[in-house]
Write a structure and sequence with these properties.
heterodimer, A: 248 residues, mainly alpha, MetI-like fold, 10 helices, 0% strand, B: 265 residues, alpha/beta, disordered N terminus
């Protein structure tokens, strides 16, 4: 029965959209009719270039996400495990986290060029900072009694990290990964729009804006939203399976 | 001289002499609050000793000190160790809170195997050892289930299996039945005693229930309120194996009264 409510939710928002358009409450220049967008969507889905755009956006997002996540988990574990490293790096991480990633665009362009490297690097940077903080708080949230119990079994150092602390931190790491994934998509779309590229959904949006193909802008936006939604769903499904023990 | 020392060690598995421990006071004053003051006792090999005392009397601190999780301010703790691979003795610790001391991400068998991963390199051998302990407490049918899937009593039995599988020099139990109901406690106690009598491990068990303390032990050590000192030791000469029927026997009642008298002295 749940799906009926879900579908009626979608139907109502499309109806509202149609009403706003057909009664000229919102200008057609800003809001084309749902049918127009649907037609553009169908044309786009037959276009190989459109699929290429999707492919490159997802590829860049996942590349930046993977690099940043691995680096962030690594730094987070070190900072969570060693009090000295924490004291040393805490301010630095907090400081960089306070800088909006967009402010670093120009610098990353100079450092990594205008090709894919700068886009992926900026996404990785953003992901790494989120993952560092989440991994660290995951390590800090490890149950003291569990560590104590492991100590009585002569489990120390790297073994303690691997067998007790990493699994303990996993729920926090997973939650961080979902945030990082959506941030990576945001950064990739924005860099595609402003650093320029030959393919990608971000480029598609600015390109269609320049030729006033409003319906096509909507197609690109809706597609981006669907990608974001799908990525988040995948991450949730993986999380649910891998962390079935969490909270029990 | 050497011979004397050897004799001494073989007599006492655990030897505690002039043990004192204080914690910094909570109100940030320079004074520290003594928890244990000049405590002395010995436990013979294979003996089961219950520690019975009021709440906050430093019972848990005593176990933490013996386990080497905390260091004493003064005095000494000697534990006879049959294992040369570690510089510190092997401690089988069973905590009150099994949910936070065991690993929910592992299976029941995986939890027991955690104690073996250091010493037993072959995984099939680890499995066999873990299964043999689970068999003793009747848990083989849940061996491949995840730990969180079990009931409280079963979880504590897994914790007991893990502690025994470790082949410890001393078994320490910190209020292991506090989170369990009456019937479950009796069942877990019977299972604990059957593994214990087979493995002949020296055991030290904290209890705040006088029935548990008397039923399990060879000796009940009664502690004073803070700072903890030993008020007296009562020998429990009930025959082994212990049975549920003993709970209602006059001998049991007499010993129970003795413990309570000493406790409220």
């Amino acid at each position: 029965m749940k799906w009926i409510y879900r579908i009626s939710g979608i139907v109502s928002i499309v109806t509202l959209w149609g009403l706003l358009h057909y009664f000229h409450i919102v200008s057609a220049l800003v809001l084309p009719s749902p049918t127009e967008v649907l037609f553009s969507l169908m044309t786009a889905y037959q276009d190989i270039v459109f699929w290429q755009d999707i492919f490159y956006t997802i590829l860049r997002t996942l590349s930046g996400f993977s690099i940043g996540t691995i680096a962030g988990i690594f730094i987070g574990l070190i900072m969570g495990y060693s009090e000295k490293m924490y004291d040393m790096l805490e301010f630095i991480v907090d400081f960089f986290r306070s800088i909006p990633a967009t402010a670093l665009f120009p610098l990353f362009m100079i450092a990594f060029g205008i090709e894919d490297a700068s886009k992926i690097a900026l996404a990785a940077w953003t992901c790494a900072l989120v993952m560092t903080v989440n991994t660290m708080s995951g390590v800090h949230s490890a149950k003291q009694l569990r560590i104590k119990a492991a100590r009585t079994l002569h489990i120390r150092g790297m073994t303690l990290l691997r067998k007790i602390i990493v699994p303990e931190a996993l729920p926090h790491i997973a939650a961080g990964a979902r945030i990082a994934l959506s941030l990576a998509l945001i950064v990739i779309i924005v860099t595609e729009m402003f650093i320029g590229t030959n393919e990608g959904l971000g480029k598609r949006i600015t390109e269609k804006q320049q030729i006033f193909a409003i319906a096509d802008i909507y197609v690109a936006i809706i597609t981006t939203g669907l990608i974001g939604y799908a990525l988040n769903r995948c991450a949730l499904a993986i999380e649910k399976r891998a962390l079935h023990w969490h909270g029990k | 001289m050497t011979l004397e020392r050897v004799t001494f060690y073989t007599m006492a598995q655990v030897h505690v002499a002039h043990l004192s421990k204080s914690f910094p006071a909570e109100n940030h004053s320079k004074q520290s609050a003594p928890v244990i003051h000049d405590m002395n006792f010995s436990i013979a090999e294979g003996e089961f000793v219950s520690i019975f005392g009021p709440n906050g009397s430093g019972k848990s601190t005593l176990l933490s000190l013996i386990a080497g999780l905390e260091t004493p301010d003064s005095g000494e703790i000697r534990i006879l160790s049959a294992h040369s691979e570690y510089t510190t003795p092997k401690i089988g610790f069973v905590f009150q809170n099994y949910n936070e001391s065991m690993l929910p991400w592992r299976t029941v068998r995986g939890n027991v195997e955690l104690a073996l991963e250091h010493t037993v390199s072959s995984s099939s051998e680890r499995k066999a050892i873990a299964m043999s302990f689970l068999d003793k407490v009747g848990l083989t049918h849940v061996a491949e289930r995840y730990f969180y899937d079990l009931s409280g009593g079963m979880k504590q039995l897994v914790a007991i299996c893990r502690a025994f599988a470790y082949e410890p020099d001393v078994l320490l139990l910190d209020e292991p039945f506090s989170a369990l109901d009456f019937a479950t406690t009796r069942k877990v106690e019977m299972d604990l005693l059957s593994v214990w009598s087979e493995k002949k491990k020296t055991a030290l068990c904290i209890s705040h229930d006088v029935d548990d303390a008397v039923f399990l032990a060879d000796k009940v050590m009664v502690l004073s309120p803070r700072p903890a000192q030993i008020k007296g030791i009562i020998t429990i000469d009930l025959p082994r194996p212990r049975t549920m029927a003993m709970f209602t026997s006059p001998e049991f009642f007499a010993l129970r009264s003795q413990v309570l008298e000493l406790f409220s002295l």
